[in-house]
UniProtKB/TrEMBL annotation, chains A, B:
One of its GO terms (biological process) is tricarboxylic acid cycle. Keywords: ATP-binding, Nucleotide-binding, Tricarboxylic acid cycle. GO terms for molecular function: acetate-CoA ligase (ADP-forming) activity; ATP binding; metal ion binding. This is CoA-binding protein. Pfam families: ATP-grasp_5, CoA_binding_2, Ligase_CoA_2, Succ_CoA_lig. Residues 43-79 form the ATP-grasp domain. In the N-terminal section; belongs to the acetate CoA ligase alpha subunit family.
């Protein structure tokens, strides 16, 4: 052991990382058939990526150890170096806080004795002598490989309490510096990093830097399966990883096939906006799925060509029928399948031969019933002929702007700008019922079912470039390829809000999801963090998904964070304020001049400030004046209205005046989000509907839902970098 | 300093506490004009109440200190004893981990030097020499005095991270042993007490015991304002308070007047179920409040006597009018005020002279507009004449079983078993609108407004003994007397569910509440914990309050924790499972025989287990068979149904069959809670209404609300000790 064994700590600058050094280490490990790095190997890897570690060296004798200790400086830590021993502490292979030559010498011998007792015959390569770090905040920087999301970097505080509280945050790797900084604020205990009880704040740059470097390392080397820097000592000056654990897995992961972006767009356009649709299994017989599909196509008003396919019939519902898609003279864009599972594969081959772009596989009887082989067969046919598959096990889909109801469910034709999808048929039916009941205009409703091929990110890619769609809302139970979804969602959500209800959030829900679709539900915290990283608005419940889908598209994008509540009912004001906090909305601190301006319009015992409490017995004029002021003043960015039903200002009077003022301002080029909570007798239901129909999301008997809808719009605007 | 100064630690048994010893300490402090106890005084108090503290003694010289250290055993802690120094560490007055005679001797001198530097002239009584505790889990046991709830005992883990996470739990003092044990499970980091990473679990009995003793101490001595045992070392054997801090406040707190239970019941019965009502300010003129009240009384169908009071009129709406209540020949139970604020006091005096039980003070213009004097005047008149005051600043109240609408709002007459109240008029109007819209039967709706007298606990006391009321739901922004509320709620909730929406949960909401009612909103965590301790169901939103009020009364009380989901839509099953976890419901682990029994009724590809997924295309018989089995099997205690709209089993067919099976089972004496989530086209709305009207809380397009309603019922049943 010589002096050159003592590496000086690497400097955390942005120099290019030394990939070849890491490659060399990994090759050695692979050659030796190991799956974990030793501490010195871990140090080499860290050095190569500029991840700072303590001064250290490896000793092969007690004398060596003493010499090294003097070089790195007391106190030191001693750790066994043995490829076979992963849990060094358990093996008695770690000693900390050794302050003298004597301590180090004795310590060396005792570690060797411990390890030999723990695992006779373990190959011992020496003892690492390391600078002992103290002070600062102990944190963990780590990495995991998720089956759906791939490489993720993780961050949390060190210590057992954090483990108990599961206070860890994840980001897709590689993480940007901004991602890394957001992780420091993304744990419950974030305040600990800012310095508490007079302690110094950590150096955020240094800590973010180490996170970025770890994320880059694991992205560059997919064979790194797991990584733990635990603890990292984060002080006001630096962040140094005191212990490095790296586990590798050289088994290649199956690559998931992804068509090119152009191919997805081209195919999805033909599927979603087809000029010609074949119905395989079309039927004249009431009650048959193939009959319902035909009726929906015809009665829905679809203007393209419909080709009924039936082995025997010459015509179905007055339209010429064909025995096979191959007999159809013209081009076909999409084929809707309404035949039993066992006939699907053969018909799909014929679709392939006919060069049809997409197959809408309504039939069930595949993966969801355990028939995995049957589903794999369809996937193989689809790949072979380059047909995209929707389903199987779905209700089909709607694309309203083409008057297209390619489904066996009831028709739906209220055109609008939100596209919805669901993994489950039941949830799809709830979407249709809610849409009809709330008169919610949609551009599309799509069933994804078993997702043998087309999934959420294919839909996002289509809706991204679909001018009829401004907002996308999706229900899912799993993401087959979370990474692809996140990448697409991040891009799309910069332009259009993406709302997701992820079912199976809880372990009980995840178990149910497993039995339902055969999909392994991921760790919910990972979904939570990746959704945020991707700018996705997360709905917490089915009603949230539906309410956000209805409200977000009609709200203009806010130009800033300042929210003001104007309320006739003080009690609503309190509940609306609660809801603002819960939904991350910022109640504007009312400037004095604006406060005075509001006071001019309200009774002397009303409360200005924020909420502006205009009090209950006021005439329409008071609502009018205050709402107008709220819209006119440039410092205010959004309004929340709390209405209280009185004889003096009845519900519809209130609703009409709000819309009038809104339109008056719009004519002057002023557009701000307005939501309303209406407290009153049943007439407030009609008033709420009127407001909603005129661009103001409004709810009777609820203070929390309108604010949640506004909160969803803000979540999106922030994620898209618009605020 | 002699050996007898060395107290042996007291033994934590249940011997009677020595109140006189505490009294003596407190009297000395009062006499000396201090507001905090010294460490030795704290120890005396702890000893008197059997709260274990370390072995220790007070030294007046370095030599004394060394001698004491040898007696308590090394290592020791030294702490300054000085009445003027509260923050000992800051003053350099604490040294820990002294292991030798020499350390102790030097330490004594350095502490004295530090403290003299910190505060020249501070009176130094000596240095405490204390057994140093190590190991185990550091926790905090404390006590605070809340303006509304009075004495509260607090518990949390020690350390700065817990402070950052605000992970502390409270109970009203005195706390029972069960209360104390529930505190150990009431913090987020509860698992830390159970032993993690191989550490031993704390002795729960010992820890609960110290909590109970602290809670008893602060209850016995109201002058103890705050108390901190921080840290308490909790090991697997014992719990010892290493540091004691007690702050006292000898200023007497104003006692809040509370009528006797009998008096409240008698008066409230006369007010809520009156035989004769006077309307002060009755009017024939449309649009006047006194006219609306008259119309509501007459048109609402009130069968008692109505006395219009008006200074000039001889009759109003065909009923003989009087100039004053004093002119009325018969008895009057309650007077409804519909006159301007300035005339209220005089009319109230006349009510007093007439011996009327209650005044319903609709007029505004009192505390809510800053007119505190006016409100105090009314309170004084009320006390003088023993009239109970409802309001002022309210909409009045309804008591449907007497057809009584003593309000200026619209009439409401759907009789039912839930009584609602609101502090705010706006929320009251939302209650009325929702009730009418949802056809929710109510026993009463009451406005409490400024709560100058009658408040939530008076209502609880009335509804407790009111046979027409089975469930009580209240909206409040503050509790003027949280302790009285908690005591009454605890008693009442053992018989009838009590649901509370506490507005002003967040600091923004609390600020709004302050400007609205002049009430100081309390710390929300205290409300949370006290509500739980009192068996109160907490609603998180206005809709929750209304949905719970509607659903909880019609659900039978569950006989156990086993919940089973039966669903036609697998996707709903996943979301329903999520909702179960969120609402603290236990999905029953399905026994093999029961699993087999369910499988007999469902397709082979359906999923048994829990959720029971009967799959989407099933006929009515499948729902029927599985629901019947779910009700018949004694191991299942509650059912959650997930319906999926299909042509084979349309919504109303499903709804009718569920009600049929339910009635069939009821005839056999089987009653279990059933809730339903309906996914489908708009017909599911009618089906949901039918189900609700027949005892099954059911919601279209929502998986979370029906489960939340069931969760509310369970929360109550557990709190009432029925599970």
């Amino acid at each position: 052991m010589t002096d050159e064994a003592l590496k000086t700590r690497s400097v955390g600058t942005d120099e290019a990382s030394d990939r070849s050094a890491v490659r060399k280490v990994l090759e050695k490990i692979k050659a030796e058939g190991r799956n974990a790095l030793t501490a010195p190997e871990g140090k080499l890897v860290c050095d190569a990526y500029g991840i700072r570690v303590p001064r250290e060296g490896a000793a092969r004798s007690a004398a060596d150890a003493v010499k090294l200790a003097e070089q790195v400086g007391f106190p030191v830590v001693l750790k066994i170096v043995s490829p076979g021993i992963l849990h060094k502490t358990e093996a008695g292979g770690v000693l900390v806080g050794l302050k003298s030559r004597e301590d180090v010498s004795k310590g060396y011998d005792s570690i060797l004795a411990n390890v030999k007792r723990y695992k006779a015959g373990a190959k011992i390569e020496g003892v690492q002598v390391q600078q002992m770090l103290t002070g600062g905040q102990e944190v963990i920087v780590g990495a995991v490989t998720d089956p759906s999301f791939g490489k993720l970097v993780a961050f949390g505080l060190g210590g057992v309490l954090v483990e108990v509280l599961k206070d860890v945050t994840f980001r897709l790797a590689p993480a940007s510096k901004d991602d890394a900084l957001s992780m420091l604020d993304g744990i419950q205990a974030a305040e600990m990093l800012k310095g508490v009880r007079g302690g110094a704040a950590v150096n955020r740059d240094a800590l973010a830097d180490i996170i970025v470097r770890v994320s880059r390392l694991i992205s560059d080397f997919p064979e790194i399966d797991e990584m733990d820097l635990n603890p990292v000592f984060a002080t006001d000056r630096e962040a140094i990883a005191a212990d490095v654990r790296i586990v590798v897995d050289f088994a290649p992961r199956p690559e998931r096939y992804r068509p090119s972006h152009e191919d997805i767009v081209a195919k999805m356009n033909r599927i979603m906006k087809p000029d010609a649709v074949a119905v395989i299994g079309a039927s004249s017989e009431d009650g048959k799925i193939g009959n319902s599909v035909m009726k929906n196509l015809i009665n829905g008003g679809y203007q393209g060509t419909i080709y009924p396919i039936h082995p025997k019939a010459d015509e179905i519902m007055g339209i010429e029928a064909y025995k096979s898609v191959k007999d159809v003279p013209g081009e076909i864009d999409v084929a809707v399948f309404a035949i039993p599972a066992k006939f699907v594969a053969q018909a799909l081959i014929e679709c392939g031969e006919k060069k049809i772009s997409g197959a809408v596989l309504i039939p069930s009887g595949f993966a969801e019933t355990g028939n995995l082989e049957g589903q794999t067969e369809l996937q193989e046919i689809g790949r072979k002929y380059n047909i995209r598959l929707m389903g199987p096990n779905i209700y089909g889909f709607y694309y309203t702007h083409k008057n297209l109801c390619a489904t066996f469910c009831t028709a739906y034709d209220v055109k609008g700008s939100v596209a919805l999808s669901s993994q489950s048929g039941g949830i799809g039916m709830a979407i249709i019922g809610f849409s009809r009941s709330a008169k919610m205009g949609v551009s599309a409703i799509v069933g994804l079912g078993n997702k043998s091929d087309i999934d959420e990110d294919d839909l996002l890619t289509f809706f991204e470039q679909d001018d009829n769609t401004h907002v996308i809302a999706q229900h899912c139970e799993d993401l087959k390829d979370g990474r692809a979804f996140a990448e697409v969602a991040k891009r799309v959500s910069n332009k259009k809000p993406v709302i997701v209800l992820k079912a199976g959030r809880t372990s009980a829900g995840a178990r149910a999801a497993t039995s339902h679709t055969g999909a392994l539900a991921g760790n919910d915290k990972i979904y939570e963090d990746v959704f945020r990283q991707s700018g996705v608005i997360r709905a917490r419940s089915l009603r949230d998904l539906l309410d956000f889908a209805r409200g977000v598209p009609i709200l203009p994008t806010p130009k800033g964070e300042n929210v003001v509540i104007i309320t006739g009912a003080g009690g609503s004001g309190v509940l609306l304020s609660d809801a603002c906090v819960e939904n991350g909305l910022k109640l504007m601190a009312m400037p004095d001049d604006l406060d005075q301006a509001f006071r001019k319009f309200i009774p002397p015992f009303g409360a200005a400030g924020n909420p502006v409490d205009i009090t209950g017995g006021e005439p329409p004029k008071t609502y009018q004046n205050t709402v107008r002021l709220g819209l006119e003043d440039k410092r205010i960015h959004s309004l929340i209205l709390g209405y209280w039903h009185t004889i003096i200002t009845p519900p519809m009077v209130f609703a009409r005046l709000v819309v009038e003022v809104k339109e008056e301002m719009k004519a002057k080029g002023i557009e701000k989000p307005i939501v309303a909570s209406l407290a009153g007798d049943v007439e407030v239901e009609e008033a709420s509907e009127y407001l909603y129909a005129n661009g103001v999301p409004a709810y009777p008997y609820s203070t929390e839902i309108p604010v949640a809808v506004l909160g969803a719009k803000y979540t999106w605007a922030r994620g898209a970098g618009l605020l």
